[in-house]
Structures
1.
Amino acid sequence: MTNDRPTVPDPLVAAAAMAYYDRWLDFRQGYLRVPGVQAAVFIDDAIALSTAHGSADVERATPLTTDSLFRIASHSKTFTSTAVFQLAEQGRLRLDDRAGDWLSDLGSSPLADATLRELLTHAAGIVRDSADGDFWQLWQAFPDRDQLRSIVRSADSSILERNERFKYSNIGYGLLGLVLEAASGRSYDELLRATIIERLGLRNTGTELESRRADDYATGYSALSYADHRVPIEHVDTRALASATGFYATASDLVTYFSAHFAGDDRLLSDQSKRQMRHPVWETGKAGRRYAHGLAIVTVGDRTMVGHGGGYPGHITTSVADPDGRIAVSVLTNAIDGPSETLAHAGVRLIDLAASAEPDRSGADLERFTGRFATLWGVFDIAALGGRLYLIRLTDADPAEDNARLEVVDDSTLRIVEASGFSSYGEKIHFEFDGAGKVASMRGPNAATATPLDGYTLPEVVRAPR
């Protein structure tokens, strides 16, 4: 990590970015036809945004709230890894212990020799989901403890030689859950609640589906890739794979959890252990993406971030955190094709976009130009971020990638001063205001007339000029 990478943003800059991110998410949720989107952002030492858009249950017309619960699936691996490192700090186990040292019934299975470090980093060569993974389609129940032990003892469990390559495995993390129980003398749920969940005050986080809170879970939905509509997917207990994929949480609880992984925070682990936990071990096959010990490492703009994604039947979720820059973003969606990763990365990009430019020094009232506008070609925002005006097209997945920066010419005119050469770089945008000082219309970009979206009407037929 270099010293010139983005750091903690100015609070006023961050507040403007978060206000806009909330509005941007609202549009994207409807535009992408995702039933619901819940998001939270933690900056420095506090939650800067907690928001929800759309439905927790479409059929019942139940709105999604910031307290709606999501199954966060493979986020569970970061909690499991944290618990392993906690026990290592206490001297109760070592990362280079063999799984067989703690689980004698592994016998002569090849997995008995796999170390905890290899399991944490997906280096043990273990089968991903067993020889029958149809529990992911809810055709059968997830494996129980006896079935998990049978899977790891079978000849089919070891696919590759240890340390041959990155090979993701839910079964391997299920095995780590058994090791944690053996090393601590407590159930996985008891251990994680005491050492992480209760310690951080995460009131909406748990290790597994809880029937007493059934009404609090957002309903999960199928994809649009194989049908023109979505159907609900019932929630299930992940049983012995809870340590790999069982957790539930809210976005605000998740960013609070990841804030405990910021540098200088010792609520869960020492800085030395946190550095070791996020030390990259494998390239995962995509440029800029690596895997450490229960943490994925991604590049978002100029930031190197750690976190994890989660794929559960009906819920797709993503969290990313910059431990040195003290930013964490979590986005949870209740569709099996939910775009949680691009939505989460967009939050980071907006923070850095807002902090990237010197603010306008003209003294002009920037807010008079802002709003959401439409032409036949689509919808765009003019937003004030970090004391600068930007034109952001809402159909773009990355709001910081192909925006246009605007400069005030006079009290009714802007000029495009930074933009792609394919856009209207250098041209002016002329505004008309109503009697209340609100934008009534504008000419531009592309010299086309745009009106505020809330007043835009699409005709039944767009007719050719007569």
Note: Residues 199 and 267 are 8 Å apart (CA to CA).
2.
Amino acid sequence: MSTDLSIHAQLQAIKARLQAEASPEAGKSAAYFIPGIQKQYGVRMPVLNEIANLFKSGGLPLADALWIEGSHEEQLLAARIIGKLGRKDPEAVLERIERYSAGINNWAVCDALGMQAIHGIREKYQVELFALAHRLAMAESIWQRRLALVLVQWYTRHTHLVPEIEALVTVLENDEAYYVQKAISWIKRNLSKKK
């Protein structure tokens, strides 16, 4: 999509596409598999991937506008767009992840922020991501605590980081939140593959 379009025009084009691609079946499926969705269009993931690629030139301003709009799909798009910008502005991506984390209301958006948004920074910004994970582990929000674990999930493949990952898991091990426990199980399963 042309960078000549204003953020407002890009946002309106995205909304029009989301409305055109919405389906009741996709909406029902998302509501079933992702409890907590508060506002959604009902658009399938392949379409969201296509939209993110078309509008990635909107950059951080577009991602911010999408996040503020607040539908499930718009927040997933925001996470995908910032993930495409990581190499250009890693500090801004880290800041967005932390800022956006306060508005997470379901596991799918949480996991998109923790996996897709870090795509461009995860290799060179491991120290900063672990520091963010440790801050989020202390948050009141269950989604921020889950995000703490999701942020480090990719690193389970690196043996030298296992002690630090296990330390983070220990901090959250007695957390009673279902989705935090699911993330702990996911990490432990990944770590057990290393043994």
Note: The chain has two domains: 1-121, 126-195.
3.
Amino acid sequence: MKIVVGNGLLEKIGNYCRKLGFNEKVLVLTGPHVYYVAGKTVLDYLEDSRINADYFIVKEPTFDVVEEVQEVIREVRPETLVAVGGGKVIDVAKLASFRENLPFISVPTAASHDGIASPSVSLKRRDRTPVSLMAQPPMAIIADVDVIMRAPSRLLASGCGDIVAKLTAVRDARLAYMIKGEYCGDYALSLALLSAKHVMRSVDLIARRSEAGVRTLIEALISCGVAMSIAGSSRPCSGSEHLFSHALDLIAPKPALHGEQVGVGTIMMAYLHRMNWRRVKEFLRRVGAPTTAKELGIDEYYVVEALTIAHKVKPRRYTILGETGLTWEAAERLAKATGVIE
């Protein structure tokens, strides 16, 4: 995997494609809004480099859209996909390229979660239920700091939520090993944990939205993606806090951003693990991420309900929630004890 993090990288996209051996034709995937932010720029620079470039607008992250992209791939026959956008665009590119046996290049436009570098995919079925599966990581990641710094602050805060989640995810992985004998390599777990700790130490830089802070977050998100590739699963980066978020996706009328939800989930799961949950909450508050149901924009009822069903989302993924989960009373006490609900 080639990783480049720096300034003014979009204008070099043609050079990077050629260095990777893609000289003739590429297919650019981007979003409806991101097309005007960075997608069209990438297309123009590819054309300047005399690389044929078609494009496809990803409107939503569904399996139907993945199949549409596959049809375009068979028709256009590109050498690679270039995914320009956030997690939704990149996830569609991951699965479509994996199914069609093509490499893909990740060009993130926001540092909102670790999907920019991981092999993990999160998509929706026709009934809107979310599904997580493993596909392939990008062949290369080209992260233009200038572009990412222009993204809304909310997306950066969401990325912080996804990073801090590694604290409880790693605890869950080690618990699963002790209770169930489930192996997950310590190197992958240590890398995920290091990423979370480094970002938390950089809270002042991130809170100021400084370039150094944004770079730190981008590099940490990429490192977490690498950790998942090493482990061959999302285990080092996704535990009980992610199960809570997935449960919210299933039941809440209007879920919040992925990183926002897992951040709030991390506060509560850190409490269950007897970790310093207040430090997690303070970190999220300082970077501008939600710490309560009200700040998430989700009714308190759904937070409690999500806590009671989270263990059922991935029954084979053992976490601090155990195999029977939390009762309504226990879930409500947990959410109140951490100040997530009043």
Note: The first strand starts at residue 2 and ends at 6.
4.
Amino acid sequence: MHLHRKLAVVVALTMVATLLLTACGPTPAPQVIEKVVTAVVKETVMVEGTPQVVEKEVTAVVEVEKEVTAVPEAASAAIAPDPTTLTYVMTDDAATLDPHLAYEGTSYEIIESVIEGLIWYNKERADDFVPMLALEVPSVANGGVSADGLTYTFNIRPGVKFHDGGDLTASDVAYSWERVLLQSDPNSGAWMMIEAIMGYSSGDITEKIAEGAYAGDQGELIANVTPEELKAVCEEVKSHFEVDDAAGTFKVTLAQPWGPFLAIIARPWAYVIDQEWTAAQGDWDGSCDTWQNFYAPGQEATKLAKIINGTGPYILDHWTPDVEWVLTANENYWRQEGDPPWPDGPSGVAKIKRIVHKTVPEWGTRFAMFQTGEVGAADVPTANRAQADAWVGEICDYETYECTPTANPDAPLRLWPGLPSTSRTDLFISHNVKTGESGSNPYIGSGQFDGNGIPPDFFSDIHVRKAFSYCFDYDTYIAEGQNGEGTRNNGVIIVNMLGYNPDQEMYEFDLDKCAEELALAWDGQLPDVGFRFQGVTATGYTMNQTALAILQSNLRSINPKYQLEIVTLPWAAYLASFRAGLLPIAVSGWSEDYHDPHNWVQPYLIGTYTTRQSFTEEFKEIFRPLVEQAVVEADPAKRAELYYELAKLRHEWVPEVVLSQAGNFQYESRWVKGFFYNPAATQWSYFYGFDLAGRE
């Protein structure tokens, strides 16, 4: 969905899809250990059908850790039981096979192996790209990008065929991008293409219609817009593309230079489909007279919901929803042996001939299938990591690819820990909490400096914002809330991304400095008067509650008059309150749509969260010039410099308290070969890069 309407709350440890190998041996017996964390918690409960807030003065928050005391018996040699097939069992199934409507990883697992785009990532590099259906990645240096950064020219790879036998042409590329723009489904990634190519801030292709934007309402669009207006929308879209099938070139002209453009088109919403085949399925035929009939169709109504035809290394054999899908190697794949996308990369026909995905939501069933050897891989929840750990024979570093044997070196699994995610949970503080007509808001108590509340603009004082940044124990949060696998960020941009400055100063846990800043705030009255207000998160998000409990404990240790109460709300109520600007502190998070710093600085400093945190326009203007300058800068080095300056400004003004990226992890059987970690890619989608020990 559109960035300005998107909120991805990051819970506990974000889990990537994981692989496990069955092995012989007894099920490890867990030992349960209890840890008690003291916190004052308020919860919303239903009393006779009415929601009421109930306070538990000193509620014991119990965390249960499982340590496995038994270990598996010695495993057999690390040879795949069937070297032609990789089978794995996952919790969820795909939602759609339409690449221009898919917006979740489970659908991408199929799509990214069957359909291809013009470019993809350079192995583990999320900020560097290699050509796929294009012959080269366009740049200013090679003439593929115009000097003004507006026009991108792609030379389309000749001789490529779709799985049904159709030829790939430059016209297919233009059709594919026109289709995603004109579909403009609000629950897809179309908004990113629309923003970059058309320059429409709403992310909807109907923005320029007098009564637009229609925000995905096809019926209203058709009923209220004249045929002339509809045709004009389509013709405006087509005017941004230029095709020469004879020369094999495709050009796109953007509304403005757009630094993240290559990052955006590396994702499935920009993938290429066959125009003739798609039209034959009853989908849009490319005519400007009919596009409105395919506007915002939804994932289920699209003609391509259950069928797929691409140019990729795998072909869909069959898909039985909620049961299984199977891919088979494309024996006529265009990539020749000895022509890998990167050094030592895969080439030729896919090494693994069959990929079998089975959907089994219940962990117990998945684990039983794993134990019996029925499958060679299984999705393992975070809560069950201790069971998997007992079967790990080696632990590997995703940066160096070096592996270290465990105390049980013959065990069949391999673990890749500490994989940096592309999401983060933070403390969002409102600079001016919204109140009702009477000036009341239950989350800020009395609304005054009387020891029983805070005024709505409590956090508008920079000393308060700095104090809360010093009062947070980041190391404890990583250790207890993120299982020791989090990575601190020194600004809103995540680590290893363009524009992240490792030398940027950041706030460290320091209770003395916290106390000093609070004493400086609000004319020095806080130490004597104190304050009381509520920090809020959604019910069930234990990591978020841990963050609030840490802050609560540290504030109380400085001065018992500094009272932060913890309140949990049902998800819908929490989100509504956060969006309405009612929460003085909210624990929430962001998960990137595409791997570029703009997808972080925009929502944090001038977009989504600034509304929820009630930034003044003047405060946003501190950051806006650099945000807008950086996104249109074509030179990566110059963009990085601008983001460095932006990080300094953010540190100076402290709009929020930035925490740490959760660490991902991955288990795989030791007979699986070819793993690499790219934080921007769907991890279990590039099956072409994998191999199985014992295949030859």
Note: The mean pLDDT is 87.
